[in-house]
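Lab notes, practical 5.
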Amino acid sequence: MLIVKATDLRKEWDGTVLFENVSFEIAEGQRIAIFGRNGTGKTTLLNGLLGQTAFDHGSVHRHVPLEEWGWLEQHPAGVREKTVLDFVLSGSESRYALKLRLEGLQRRMSQEESSALLDQYGELHERYMQQGGYEWELQAEKCLQRVKLDPGLWRQPFHCLSGGQKTRAQLARLMVREPKFIVLDEPTNHLDEETLSWLEQWLRQYAGTVLFVSHDRYFLDRTASAIYELTGQGGRLYPGGYSDYRKQKDIEWQTQEALHKKQEQAREKLLESIRRYQQWFHQAHQAAGQNDFLRSKAKKNVSRLKAKEAALERLDRDRVRKPREEGGLHMQLQDRPFAAGTLLRIEEVGFAYDGGRQIFQALSVSVNRGDRVAVIGLNGAGKTTLLRLMTGSLTPASGEVKLHPQTRIGYFAQELDQLNPDETILDSLLRLPGMTQSSHARTILGCFLFSGDEAFKRIGDLSMGEKCRVAFLHLYFGGFNLLILDEPTNYLDIDTREKVEEALLEYQGALVLVSHDRYLLQNIANRLLILDGTGAKAFPGTYVEYMAKRRDADISAENQRQENEIGRLELKLTQLMAEPEPELEADRQQLIADIKRLSALLMSLKQL
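Output from the prediction step:
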Protein backbone atom coordinates (compact mmCIF):
# COMPACT_ATOMS: atom_id res chain seq x y z
CA MET A 1 0.00 0.00 0.00
CA LEU A 2 1.27 3.47 -0.91
CA ILE A 3 1.44 6.12 1.79
CA VAL A 4 2.39 9.11 -0.36
CA LYS A 5 3.46 9.71 -3.96
CA ALA A 6 5.36 12.81 -5.13
CA THR A 7 5.64 13.63 -8.83
CA ASP A 8 7.97 16.13 -10.54
CA LEU A 9 8.27 18.49 -7.57
CA ARG A 10 10.01 21.84 -7.99
CA LYS A 11 10.67 24.60 -5.45
CA GLU A 12 12.34 28.00 -5.73
CA TRP A 13 13.45 30.21 -2.86
CA ASP A 14 14.27 33.89 -3.43
CA GLY A 15 14.70 33.26 -7.14
CA THR A 16 17.05 30.28 -6.63
CA VAL A 17 15.93 26.75 -7.52
CA LEU A 18 16.31 24.55 -4.44
CA PHE A 19 15.32 21.36 -6.26
CA GLU A 20 13.42 20.18 -9.33
CA ASN A 21 12.44 16.89 -11.03
CA VAL A 22 11.87 15.29 -7.61
CA SER A 23 9.67 12.19 -7.75
CA PHE A 24 9.33 9.27 -5.32
CA GLU A 25 6.89 6.87 -3.70
CA ILE A 26 6.76 5.83 -0.06
CA ALA A 27 5.20 2.46 0.67
CA GLU A 28 3.80 1.14 3.93
CA GLY A 29 6.44 -0.05 6.39
CA GLN A 30 9.38 1.81 4.81
CA ARG A 31 11.78 3.98 6.83
CA ILE A 32 13.19 6.44 4.31
CA ALA A 33 15.85 9.03 5.11
CA ILE A 34 16.16 12.15 2.95
CA PHE A 35 19.84 12.80 2.46
CA GLY A 36 21.63 15.75 0.89
CA ARG A 37 23.96 18.66 1.37
CA ASN A 38 22.98 21.70 3.40
CA GLY A 39 20.88 24.04 1.27
CA THR A 40 19.34 21.39 -1.00
CA GLY A 41 15.89 21.92 0.54
CA LYS A 42 15.37 18.82 2.69
CA THR A 43 13.26 20.59 5.34
CA THR A 44 11.36 22.49 2.62
CA LEU A 45 10.51 19.16 0.98
CA LEU A 46 9.14 17.79 4.27
CA ASN A 47 7.05 20.93 4.83
CA GLY A 48 5.64 20.62 1.33
CA LEU A 49 4.62 17.01 1.88
CA LEU A 50 2.88 18.11 5.11
CA GLY A 51 0.96 20.79 3.22
CA GLN A 52 2.69 23.61 5.12
CA THR A 53 4.56 24.91 2.03
CA ALA A 54 3.36 25.04 -1.58
CA PHE A 55 5.50 23.56 -4.34
CA ASP A 56 6.02 25.63 -7.50
CA HIS A 57 5.42 22.61 -9.70
CA GLY A 58 4.42 18.97 -9.35
CA SER A 59 1.89 17.10 -7.26
CA VAL A 60 1.63 15.20 -3.97
CA HIS A 61 -0.92 12.39 -3.58
CA ARG A 62 -1.52 11.39 0.05
CA HIS A 63 -2.98 7.88 0.20
CA VAL A 64 -3.11 8.19 3.99
CA PRO A 65 -4.91 11.39 5.15
CA LEU A 66 -2.92 14.03 7.02
CA GLU A 67 -4.99 13.32 10.16
CA GLU A 68 -3.18 9.98 10.41
CA TRP A 69 0.29 11.52 9.99
CA GLY A 70 2.51 12.48 12.89
CA TRP A 71 5.38 14.96 12.91
CA LEU A 72 7.63 16.92 15.19
CA GLU A 73 6.41 20.53 15.23
CA GLN A 74 8.80 23.36 16.03
CA HIS A 75 6.07 25.34 17.83
CA PRO A 76 3.04 23.18 18.75
CA ALA A 77 -0.19 25.20 18.99
CA GLY A 78 -2.60 25.26 21.92
CA VAL A 79 -0.26 23.67 24.46
CA ARG A 80 0.89 26.62 26.57
CA GLU A 81 -1.16 25.71 29.66
CA LYS A 82 -0.89 21.93 29.28
CA THR A 83 1.39 19.97 31.57
CA VAL A 84 4.02 17.81 29.92
CA LEU A 85 2.03 14.64 30.66
CA ASP A 86 -1.18 16.17 29.29
CA PHE A 87 0.71 17.32 26.18
CA VAL A 88 1.87 13.76 25.55
CA LEU A 89 -1.59 12.29 26.19
CA SER A 90 -3.37 14.91 24.06
CA GLY A 91 -1.73 13.50 20.94
CA SER A 92 -4.41 10.77 21.06
CA GLU A 93 -7.39 13.11 20.81
CA SER A 94 -10.34 10.73 21.33
CA ARG A 95 -8.92 8.93 24.36
CA TYR A 96 -7.66 12.18 25.87
CA ALA A 97 -11.12 13.78 25.51
CA LEU A 98 -12.68 10.71 27.18
CA LYS A 99 -10.14 10.93 30.02
CA LEU A 100 -10.99 14.61 30.62
CA ARG A 101 -14.71 13.79 30.72
CA LEU A 102 -14.11 11.02 33.27
CA GLU A 103 -12.06 13.35 35.47
CA GLY A 104 -14.79 15.98 35.26
CA LEU A 105 -17.43 13.47 36.33
CA GLN A 106 -15.26 12.31 39.24
CA ARG A 107 -15.01 15.91 40.48
CA ARG A 108 -18.81 16.35 40.24
CA MET A 109 -19.46 12.99 41.99
CA SER A 110 -17.24 14.05 44.88
CA GLN A 111 -19.48 17.09 45.39
CA GLU A 112 -22.95 15.60 44.82
CA GLU A 113 -24.62 12.17 44.83
CA SER A 114 -26.60 11.39 41.69
CA SER A 115 -27.63 8.10 40.11
CA ALA A 116 -27.55 9.78 36.70
CA LEU A 117 -23.91 10.81 37.23
CA LEU A 118 -23.05 7.27 38.37
CA ASP A 119 -24.67 5.75 35.27
CA GLN A 120 -22.89 8.22 33.00
CA TYR A 121 -19.58 7.55 34.75
CA GLY A 122 -20.05 3.79 34.46
CA GLU A 123 -20.80 4.02 30.74
CA LEU A 124 -17.79 6.27 30.04
CA HIS A 125 -15.53 4.14 32.20
CA GLU A 126 -16.52 1.02 30.24
CA ARG A 127 -15.74 2.79 26.96
CA TYR A 128 -12.39 3.93 28.40
CA MET A 129 -11.53 0.36 29.39
CA GLN A 130 -12.51 -0.95 25.94
CA GLN A 131 -10.21 1.60 24.31
CA GLY A 132 -7.30 0.48 26.51
CA GLY A 133 -7.23 3.76 28.41
CA TYR A 134 -5.19 2.61 31.39
CA GLU A 135 -2.66 0.78 29.23
CA TRP A 136 -2.41 3.97 27.17
CA GLU A 137 -1.67 6.04 30.31
CA LEU A 138 1.01 3.55 31.32
CA GLN A 139 2.49 3.72 27.83
CA ALA A 140 2.64 7.53 28.03
CA GLU A 141 4.57 7.38 31.31
CA LYS A 142 6.91 4.70 29.97
CA CYS A 143 7.64 6.79 26.86
CA LEU A 144 8.42 9.84 29.00
CA GLN A 145 10.79 7.69 31.05
CA ARG A 146 12.45 6.29 27.95
CA VAL A 147 13.10 9.69 26.43
CA LYS A 148 14.70 10.59 29.78
CA LEU A 149 12.30 13.29 30.93
CA ASP A 150 12.51 13.42 34.72
CA PRO A 151 9.16 12.62 36.45
CA GLY A 152 9.51 15.90 38.31
CA LEU A 153 8.87 17.69 34.98
CA TRP A 154 5.72 15.77 34.04
CA ARG A 155 3.40 18.13 35.96
CA GLN A 156 5.24 21.26 34.79
CA PRO A 157 3.86 23.39 31.91
CA PHE A 158 5.16 22.22 28.53
CA HIS A 159 6.24 25.76 27.52
CA CYS A 160 8.70 25.87 30.47
CA LEU A 161 10.84 23.04 29.06
CA SER A 162 14.17 23.61 27.34
CA GLY A 163 14.51 23.00 23.61
CA GLY A 164 15.96 19.52 24.12
CA GLN A 165 13.27 18.62 26.67
CA LYS A 166 10.54 19.76 24.28
CA THR A 167 12.00 17.50 21.58
CA ARG A 168 11.86 14.56 23.99
CA ALA A 169 8.27 15.34 24.97
CA GLN A 170 7.23 15.52 21.32
CA LEU A 171 8.89 12.19 20.61
CA ALA A 172 7.01 10.65 23.55
CA ARG A 173 3.74 12.12 22.21
CA LEU A 174 4.37 10.52 18.80
CA MET A 175 5.34 7.20 20.33
CA VAL A 176 2.14 7.00 22.37
CA ARG A 177 -0.10 7.95 19.47
CA GLU A 178 1.61 5.63 16.95
CA PRO A 179 0.32 7.25 13.74
CA LYS A 180 0.50 5.34 10.44
CA PHE A 181 3.07 7.74 8.99
CA ILE A 182 5.69 9.77 10.91
CA VAL A 183 7.72 12.69 9.53
CA LEU A 184 10.82 13.68 11.53
CA ASP A 185 13.21 16.57 10.81
CA GLU A 186 16.52 16.03 12.62
CA PRO A 187 14.98 13.97 15.46
CA THR A 188 18.41 13.33 17.02
CA ASN A 189 19.08 17.00 17.84
CA HIS A 190 19.69 17.62 21.58
CA LEU A 191 19.35 13.91 22.47
CA ASP A 192 22.02 12.18 24.53
CA GLU A 193 23.44 8.80 23.54
CA GLU A 194 21.16 6.76 25.82
CA THR A 195 17.97 8.38 24.48
CA LEU A 196 19.27 8.05 20.91
CA SER A 197 19.78 4.31 21.35
CA TRP A 198 16.25 3.90 22.61
CA LEU A 199 14.83 6.00 19.73
CA GLU A 200 16.70 3.83 17.22
CA GLN A 201 15.31 0.67 18.74
CA TRP A 202 11.78 2.09 18.78
CA LEU A 203 11.94 3.16 15.13
CA ARG A 204 13.24 -0.26 14.05
CA GLN A 205 10.33 -1.97 15.82
CA TYR A 206 7.71 0.60 14.78
CA ALA A 207 5.04 -1.00 12.56
CA GLY A 208 4.20 2.24 10.70
CA THR A 209 6.05 4.21 8.03
CA VAL A 210 8.73 6.84 8.69
CA LEU A 211 10.23 9.64 6.60
CA PHE A 212 13.04 11.59 8.22
CA VAL A 213 15.98 13.94 7.72
CA SER A 214 19.19 13.34 9.67
CA HIS A 215 22.92 14.02 9.40
CA ASP A 216 23.67 11.30 11.97
CA ARG A 217 25.29 8.50 9.95
CA TYR A 218 25.10 6.04 12.84
CA PHE A 219 21.37 6.77 13.16
CA LEU A 220 20.90 6.33 9.40
CA ASP A 221 22.65 2.96 9.47
CA ARG A 222 20.53 1.67 12.35
CA THR A 223 17.12 2.94 11.25
CA ALA A 224 16.83 3.64 7.50
CA SER A 225 15.54 0.96 5.12
CA ALA A 226 16.35 3.27 2.18
CA ILE A 227 18.00 6.64 1.54
CA TYR A 228 16.62 9.19 -0.91
CA GLU A 229 19.46 11.40 -2.10
CA LEU A 230 18.12 14.89 -2.82
CA THR A 231 20.06 17.18 -5.17
CA GLY A 232 19.19 20.38 -6.99
CA GLN A 233 18.50 18.39 -10.18
CA GLY A 234 16.36 15.62 -8.71
CA GLY A 235 16.78 12.60 -6.50
CA ARG A 236 17.47 8.88 -6.37
CA LEU A 237 16.50 6.13 -3.94
CA TYR A 238 19.18 3.79 -2.56
CA PRO A 239 18.22 0.68 -0.54
CA GLY A 240 19.71 0.21 2.93
CA GLY A 241 21.37 2.56 5.41
CA TYR A 242 24.21 5.02 5.05
CA SER A 243 26.99 2.43 4.71
CA ASP A 244 25.06 0.72 1.88
CA TYR A 245 24.50 4.10 0.22
CA ARG A 246 28.21 4.93 0.41
CA LYS A 247 29.20 1.56 -1.11
CA GLN A 248 26.75 2.06 -3.99
CA LYS A 249 28.07 5.59 -4.62
CA ASP A 250 31.63 4.22 -4.72
CA ILE A 251 30.55 1.61 -7.30
CA GLU A 252 28.83 4.33 -9.37
CA TRP A 253 31.98 6.43 -9.21
CA GLN A 254 34.23 3.57 -10.34
CA THR A 255 31.81 2.55 -13.12
CA GLN A 256 31.52 6.11 -14.41
CA GLU A 257 35.29 6.57 -14.25
CA ALA A 258 35.90 3.35 -16.23
CA LEU A 259 33.30 4.28 -18.87
CA HIS A 260 34.73 7.79 -19.16
CA LYS A 261 38.21 6.38 -19.66
CA LYS A 262 36.97 3.96 -22.35
CA GLN A 263 35.16 6.76 -24.18
CA GLU A 264 38.23 9.01 -24.00
CA GLN A 265 40.31 6.25 -25.60
CA ALA A 266 37.69 5.82 -28.34
CA ARG A 267 37.61 9.58 -28.86
CA GLU A 268 41.39 9.73 -29.26
CA LYS A 269 41.23 6.99 -31.92
CA LEU A 270 38.50 8.88 -33.81
CA LEU A 271 40.47 12.12 -33.67
CA GLU A 272 43.56 10.31 -34.96
CA SER A 273 41.52 8.80 -37.83
CA ILE A 274 40.04 12.21 -38.68
CA ARG A 275 43.51 13.78 -38.77
CA ARG A 276 44.76 10.93 -41.00
CA TYR A 277 41.84 11.19 -43.46
CA GLN A 278 42.18 14.98 -43.59
CA GLN A 279 45.86 14.57 -44.46
CA TRP A 280 45.12 11.91 -47.12
CA PHE A 281 42.40 14.03 -48.71
CA HIS A 282 44.62 17.10 -48.83
CA GLN A 283 47.50 15.15 -50.42
CA ALA A 284 45.24 13.29 -52.88
CA HIS A 285 43.43 16.47 -53.90
CA GLN A 286 46.72 18.23 -54.65
CA ALA A 287 48.06 15.24 -56.59
CA ALA A 288 44.85 14.84 -58.66
CA GLY A 289 45.01 18.27 -60.23
CA GLN A 290 42.49 18.21 -63.17
CA ASN A 291 42.50 14.39 -63.45
CA ASP A 292 38.86 13.33 -62.99
CA PHE A 293 39.74 9.75 -62.01
CA LEU A 294 42.12 10.86 -59.25
CA ARG A 295 39.67 13.55 -58.07
CA SER A 296 36.94 10.89 -57.74
CA LYS A 297 39.27 8.67 -55.76
CA ALA A 298 40.10 11.56 -53.41
CA LYS A 299 36.39 12.09 -52.69
CA LYS A 300 36.21 8.59 -51.17
CA ASN A 301 38.49 9.83 -48.40
CA VAL A 302 36.07 12.74 -47.86
CA SER A 303 33.20 10.27 -47.27
CA ARG A 304 35.27 8.33 -44.77
CA LEU A 305 36.27 11.61 -43.08
CA LYS A 306 32.63 12.70 -42.77
CA ALA A 307 31.69 9.32 -41.28
CA LYS A 308 34.41 9.60 -38.64
CA GLU A 309 33.36 13.18 -37.82
CA ALA A 310 29.72 12.05 -37.42
CA ALA A 311 30.87 9.26 -35.08
CA LEU A 312 32.81 11.81 -33.03
CA GLU A 313 29.70 14.04 -32.78
CA ARG A 314 27.64 11.08 -31.52
CA LEU A 315 30.29 10.19 -28.97
CA ASP A 316 30.50 13.78 -27.70
CA ARG A 317 26.71 14.02 -27.52
CA ASP A 318 26.44 10.87 -25.35
CA ARG A 319 29.70 11.46 -23.56
CA VAL A 320 29.95 10.39 -19.93
CA ARG A 321 31.37 13.17 -17.80
CA LYS A 322 34.44 12.44 -15.74
CA PRO A 323 33.30 11.80 -12.16
CA ARG A 324 34.39 14.49 -9.78
CA GLU A 325 33.61 15.47 -6.25
CA GLU A 326 31.25 18.42 -5.91
CA GLY A 327 32.85 21.34 -4.11
CA GLY A 328 34.02 19.88 -0.86
CA LEU A 329 36.16 20.90 2.07
CA HIS A 330 39.88 20.28 1.57
CA MET A 331 41.88 20.45 4.77
CA GLN A 332 44.88 18.87 6.45
CA LEU A 333 45.55 19.78 10.07
CA GLN A 334 49.17 20.40 10.97
CA ASP A 335 50.60 19.74 14.39
CA ARG A 336 53.71 20.93 16.20
CA PRO A 337 56.27 18.24 17.19
CA PHE A 338 56.03 17.24 20.85
CA ALA A 339 58.53 14.98 22.59
CA ALA A 340 57.15 14.71 26.15
CA GLY A 341 54.66 12.07 27.30
CA THR A 342 51.93 14.23 28.89
CA LEU A 343 50.46 17.40 27.37
CA LEU A 344 47.85 18.25 30.02
CA ARG A 345 47.05 17.11 33.54
CA ILE A 346 44.01 17.90 35.71
CA GLU A 347 44.68 17.27 39.40
CA GLU A 348 41.95 17.09 42.07
CA VAL A 349 39.86 19.78 40.39
CA GLY A 350 36.57 20.97 41.86
CA PHE A 351 34.17 23.30 40.06
CA ALA A 352 30.66 24.73 40.50
CA TYR A 353 28.92 27.62 38.75
CA ASP A 354 27.83 30.52 40.97
CA GLY A 355 24.88 29.41 43.05
CA GLY A 356 24.69 26.11 41.17
CA ARG A 357 25.32 22.47 41.87
CA GLN A 358 28.80 20.99 42.10
CA ILE A 359 29.88 19.93 38.60
CA PHE A 360 33.21 18.34 39.53
CA GLN A 361 34.79 17.35 42.81
CA ALA A 362 38.37 16.05 43.07
CA LEU A 363 38.50 15.34 39.31
CA SER A 364 41.82 13.98 37.97
CA VAL A 365 42.44 13.45 34.24
CA SER A 366 45.50 13.42 32.00
CA VAL A 367 45.92 13.77 28.23
CA ASN A 368 48.99 12.06 26.83
CA ARG A 369 50.75 12.06 23.49
CA GLY A 370 48.79 9.92 21.01
CA ASP A 371 45.56 10.17 23.01
CA ARG A 372 42.31 10.66 21.11
CA VAL A 373 39.90 11.06 24.00
CA ALA A 374 36.12 11.18 23.52
CA VAL A 375 34.26 12.78 26.45
CA ILE A 376 30.73 11.34 26.67
CA GLY A 377 27.86 11.49 29.14
CA LEU A 378 24.33 12.73 29.70
CA ASN A 379 23.41 16.31 28.79
CA GLY A 380 24.29 18.52 31.76
CA ALA A 381 26.99 16.19 33.07
CA GLY A 382 29.70 18.84 32.48
CA LYS A 383 31.30 17.90 29.14
CA THR A 384 31.65 21.47 27.85
CA THR A 385 32.66 22.64 31.32
CA LEU A 386 35.52 20.13 31.35
CA LEU A 387 36.79 21.36 27.98
CA ARG A 388 36.69 24.96 29.17
CA LEU A 389 38.67 24.03 32.25
CA MET A 390 41.26 22.39 29.98
CA THR A 391 41.57 25.50 27.80
CA GLY A 392 41.75 27.87 30.77
CA SER A 393 38.55 29.75 29.90
CA LEU A 394 37.19 28.57 33.28
CA THR A 395 39.15 28.58 36.54
CA PRO A 396 38.72 25.65 38.96
CA ALA A 397 37.51 26.35 42.50
CA SER A 398 40.05 23.86 43.78
CA GLY A 399 42.82 21.73 42.34
CA GLU A 400 44.95 22.62 39.35
CA VAL A 401 45.08 22.31 35.54
CA LYS A 402 48.70 21.85 34.42
CA LEU A 403 49.99 22.26 30.85
CA HIS A 404 53.37 21.17 29.57
CA PRO A 405 55.36 24.27 28.46
CA GLN A 406 55.36 23.02 24.84
CA THR A 407 51.62 22.32 24.73
CA ARG A 408 49.74 24.48 22.22
CA ILE A 409 45.94 24.12 22.41
CA GLY A 410 43.56 24.67 19.51
CA TYR A 411 40.00 25.07 20.78
CA PHE A 412 36.78 24.63 18.79
CA ALA A 413 33.78 25.87 20.83
CA GLN A 414 30.30 24.71 19.79
CA GLU A 415 28.94 28.27 20.25
CA LEU A 416 31.71 29.54 17.90
CA ASP A 417 31.96 32.63 20.11
CA GLN A 418 35.75 32.69 19.69
CA LEU A 419 35.20 34.24 16.23
CA ASN A 420 35.06 38.01 15.76
CA PRO A 421 31.65 38.74 14.16
CA ASP A 422 32.80 42.13 12.80
CA GLU A 423 35.72 40.73 10.78
CA THR A 424 35.45 39.54 7.21
CA ILE A 425 36.48 35.97 6.45
CA LEU A 426 39.56 37.20 4.56
CA ASP A 427 40.65 39.59 7.35
CA SER A 428 40.22 36.77 9.87
CA LEU A 429 42.57 34.62 7.82
CA LEU A 430 45.16 37.36 7.16
CA ARG A 431 45.44 37.93 10.91
CA LEU A 432 46.85 34.41 11.41
CA PRO A 433 50.63 33.99 11.87
CA GLY A 434 52.53 33.61 8.61
CA MET A 435 49.55 34.54 6.41
CA THR A 436 50.72 37.70 4.65
CA GLN A 437 49.79 37.28 0.98
CA SER A 438 46.19 37.96 0.03
CA SER A 439 46.43 35.74 -3.10
CA HIS A 440 47.58 32.76 -1.04
CA ALA A 441 44.81 33.41 1.49
CA ARG A 442 42.20 33.45 -1.30
CA THR A 443 43.45 30.08 -2.51
CA ILE A 444 43.14 28.66 0.99
CA LEU A 445 39.61 30.08 1.31
CA GLY A 446 38.66 28.26 -1.89
CA CYS A 447 39.71 24.97 -0.28
CA PHE A 448 37.28 25.78 2.53
CA LEU A 449 34.43 26.49 0.08
CA PHE A 450 34.66 30.30 0.26
CA SER A 451 35.06 31.52 -3.32
CA GLY A 452 34.84 34.90 -5.04
CA ASP A 453 33.18 37.70 -3.07
CA GLU A 454 32.30 35.30 -0.23
CA ALA A 455 35.77 36.06 1.18
CA PHE A 456 34.50 39.55 2.09
CA LYS A 457 31.46 38.37 4.06
CA ARG A 458 31.24 39.47 7.70
CA ILE A 459 31.58 36.50 10.05
CA GLY A 460 28.53 37.74 11.94
CA ASP A 461 26.44 37.31 8.76
CA LEU A 462 27.47 33.70 8.14
CA SER A 463 25.39 30.57 8.72
CA MET A 464 26.47 28.24 11.52
CA GLY A 465 27.90 25.81 8.95
CA GLU A 466 29.97 28.58 7.37
CA LYS A 467 31.19 29.72 10.80
CA CYS A 468 32.31 26.13 11.47
CA ARG A 469 34.49 26.24 8.37
CA VAL A 470 36.04 29.56 9.46
CA ALA A 471 36.79 28.04 12.87
CA PHE A 472 38.54 25.12 11.15
CA LEU A 473 40.63 27.64 9.19
CA HIS A 474 42.07 28.83 12.50
CA LEU A 475 42.82 25.24 13.55
CA TYR A 476 44.35 24.53 10.14
CA PHE A 477 47.08 27.16 10.50
CA GLY A 478 47.56 27.11 14.25
CA GLY A 479 50.32 24.50 14.50
CA PHE A 480 48.60 23.07 17.59
CA ASN A 481 49.64 19.77 19.20
CA LEU A 482 46.44 19.40 21.28
CA LEU A 483 43.02 19.97 19.72
CA ILE A 484 40.05 20.38 22.07
CA LEU A 485 36.87 20.12 20.04
CA ASP A 486 33.33 20.74 21.33
CA GLU A 487 30.71 19.45 18.85
CA PRO A 488 32.84 20.29 15.77
CA THR A 489 30.44 18.75 13.23
CA ASN A 490 27.08 19.96 14.58
CA TYR A 491 26.22 22.27 11.68
CA LEU A 492 27.93 20.38 8.87
CA ASP A 493 26.39 18.14 6.23
CA ILE A 494 27.65 14.57 5.93
CA ASP A 495 30.05 15.20 3.04
CA THR A 496 31.80 17.96 5.00
CA ARG A 497 31.76 15.89 8.19
CA GLU A 498 33.66 13.14 6.39
CA LYS A 499 36.31 15.59 5.19
CA VAL A 500 36.77 16.80 8.77
CA GLU A 501 36.95 13.19 9.90
CA GLU A 502 39.68 12.41 7.37
CA ALA A 503 41.70 15.41 8.55
CA LEU A 504 41.35 14.39 12.21
CA LEU A 505 42.41 10.81 11.40
CA GLU A 506 45.59 12.09 9.73
CA TYR A 507 46.33 14.61 12.50
CA GLN A 508 49.38 13.50 14.51
CA GLY A 509 48.71 15.50 17.68
CA ALA A 510 46.43 14.65 20.63
CA LEU A 511 42.66 15.17 20.62
CA VAL A 512 39.97 15.72 23.22
CA LEU A 513 36.53 15.55 21.64
CA VAL A 514 32.91 16.07 22.69
CA SER A 515 30.38 15.04 20.05
CA HIS A 516 26.94 13.49 19.59
CA ASP A 517 28.16 12.20 16.21
CA ARG A 518 28.67 8.54 17.07
CA TYR A 519 30.19 7.77 13.67
CA LEU A 520 32.88 10.35 14.44
CA LEU A 521 33.46 8.92 17.92
CA GLN A 522 33.63 5.40 16.52
CA ASN A 523 36.26 6.32 13.94
CA ILE A 524 38.38 8.77 15.94
CA ALA A 525 38.53 7.89 19.66
CA ASN A 526 40.99 5.39 21.13
CA ARG A 527 39.84 5.93 24.71
CA LEU A 528 36.81 7.41 26.48
CA LEU A 529 36.10 9.60 29.48
CA ILE A 530 32.55 9.04 30.79
CA LEU A 531 30.95 11.80 32.88
CA ASP A 532 28.01 10.69 35.03
CA GLY A 533 27.20 13.91 36.91
CA THR A 534 29.28 12.96 39.96
CA GLY A 535 32.70 12.43 38.44
CA ALA A 536 34.57 10.88 35.53
CA LYS A 537 35.39 7.27 34.65
CA ALA A 538 38.05 6.33 32.14
CA PHE A 539 37.39 3.55 29.62
CA PRO A 540 40.58 2.27 27.95
CA GLY A 541 39.01 1.25 24.65
CA THR A 542 37.02 2.37 21.64
CA TYR A 543 33.44 3.59 21.46
CA VAL A 544 32.32 0.31 19.85
CA GLU A 545 33.82 -1.72 22.71
CA TYR A 546 32.20 0.54 25.28
CA MET A 547 28.74 0.29 23.66
CA ALA A 548 28.94 -3.52 23.50
CA LYS A 549 29.67 -3.63 27.22
CA ARG A 550 26.87 -1.14 27.94
CA ARG A 551 24.25 -3.12 25.99
CA ASP A 552 24.84 -6.24 28.08
CA ALA A 553 24.48 -4.26 31.31
CA ASP A 554 21.35 -2.40 30.12
CA ILE A 555 19.47 -5.61 29.28
CA SER A 556 20.01 -6.96 32.79
CA ALA A 557 19.05 -3.64 34.42
CA GLU A 558 15.85 -3.31 32.35
CA ASN A 559 14.74 -6.84 33.27
CA GLN A 560 15.31 -6.06 36.95
CA ARG A 561 13.36 -2.79 36.73
CA GLN A 562 10.42 -4.55 35.11
CA GLU A 563 10.34 -7.25 37.79
CA ASN A 564 10.43 -4.58 40.53
CA GLU A 565 7.53 -2.69 38.97
CA ILE A 566 5.43 -5.84 38.65
CA GLY A 567 6.06 -6.64 42.32
CA ARG A 568 5.08 -3.13 43.38
CA LEU A 569 1.82 -3.21 41.41
CA GLU A 570 0.90 -6.68 42.66
CA LEU A 571 1.32 -5.51 46.26
CA LYS A 572 -0.81 -2.42 45.62
CA LEU A 573 -3.52 -4.54 43.96
CA THR A 574 -3.60 -6.92 46.93
CA GLN A 575 -4.02 -3.98 49.31
CA LEU A 576 -6.90 -2.54 47.29
CA MET A 577 -8.72 -5.86 47.09
CA ALA A 578 -8.40 -6.30 50.88
CA GLU A 579 -10.06 -2.95 51.63
CA PRO A 580 -13.64 -3.05 53.04
CA GLU A 581 -16.41 -2.12 50.62
CA PRO A 582 -17.08 1.65 50.83
CA GLU A 583 -20.46 2.88 51.94
CA LEU A 584 -20.85 5.58 49.26
CA GLU A 585 -21.57 4.40 45.72
CA ALA A 586 -19.13 6.92 44.23
CA ASP A 587 -16.30 5.58 46.42
CA ARG A 588 -17.25 2.01 45.52
CA GLN A 589 -17.11 2.83 41.80
CA GLN A 590 -13.75 4.52 42.28
CA LEU A 591 -12.35 1.46 44.08
CA ILE A 592 -13.55 -0.85 41.29
CA ALA A 593 -11.99 1.49 38.69
CA ASP A 594 -8.64 1.49 40.55
CA ILE A 595 -8.63 -2.33 40.76
CA LYS A 596 -9.40 -2.63 37.03
CA ARG A 597 -6.72 -0.08 36.18
CA LEU A 598 -4.02 -1.86 38.20
CA SER A 599 -5.05 -5.23 36.72
CA ALA A 600 -4.74 -3.79 33.21
CA LEU A 601 -1.32 -2.30 33.98
CA LEU A 602 -0.07 -5.60 35.38
CA MET A 603 -1.28 -7.54 32.36
CA SER A 604 0.40 -5.02 30.04
CA LEU A 605 3.75 -5.29 31.89
CA LYS A 606 3.70 -9.09 31.98
CA GLN A 607 3.18 -9.23 28.21
CA LEU A 608 6.30 -7.15 27.48
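Observations recorded by the TA: The chain is about 45% helix and 20% strand. Residues 551-606 form one domain.
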